[in-house]
Amino acid sequence: MKIRLTGLAVAALSLATTASAQLTPAEEGRRVYLANNCYGCHGGRGGGTSFGAPVLRTGEAEVGDLTEVIREGGDRGMPAFPNLNNTTDINNLAAYFRSMRTPAEPIFNNWWEAVPTASIPRPLRLYLAAREKLLRAPVE
Ligand code: HEC
Going by C-beta distance under 8 Å and a sequence separation of 6 or more, which residues neighbour residue 127? Predict the structure, then answer.
């Protein structure tokens, strides 16, 4: 039983590793959003905070507007992000904002994970959770 579990875990891990190369643009955008602390002002899922930064959870994102605000910042407190002033980051951010309020919206919270937990396919996630539970069960 133990050997079988280990074998499955290896299969699960290699699947997970393969998945890391296939993050969607929205997932890449969520990473940028988390890694650059956008959530500190705009909220964990773009719903705004008490600081008064605009709600981004509108399902719309104009690449032109985004480019401008990233490059120049805003008068009311939006800082400029020169490190993100490139088409890859801006397109990924735009894809992330457009995914908001759709089933494709990524919701993971740790940008540094090779495979963000919420990007792991559901059956695999269920398997890993079940396995975790099993391994933690007291030995009788
Ligand atoms: C220090 C707080 C703060 C941080 C951090 C911040 N923003 Fe903002 N953001 C604002 C404020 C305030 C505005 C309103 C524009 C202004 O400053 O005049 C804004 C405006 C925007 C807008 C335009 C939305 C609209 O409806 O006008 C976008 C898009 C945006 N921010 C994206 C981001 C992204 C992406 C990041 C991270 C890379 C980020 N923001 C980080 C405070 C912040």
Answer: 8, 12
The residue written with tokens 């579990």 in the block is 5
Architecture of domain 24-115: Orthogonal Bundle (1.10)
50 CB under 6 A from ligand 1?
Answer: no
Best residue for ligand 1 mutational test, from 41, 60, 89, 90 (most atoms within 8 Å of Cβ): 41
Predicted structure pTM score: 0.79
Average pLDDT, the chain: 83
Q: Give the whole-angstrom CA distance, residue 118 versus residue 39.
A: 18
The ligand 1 atom at the shortest distance from the C-alpha of residue 84 is: 38
> What are the domain boundaries of the chain?
1-22+121-140, 24-115
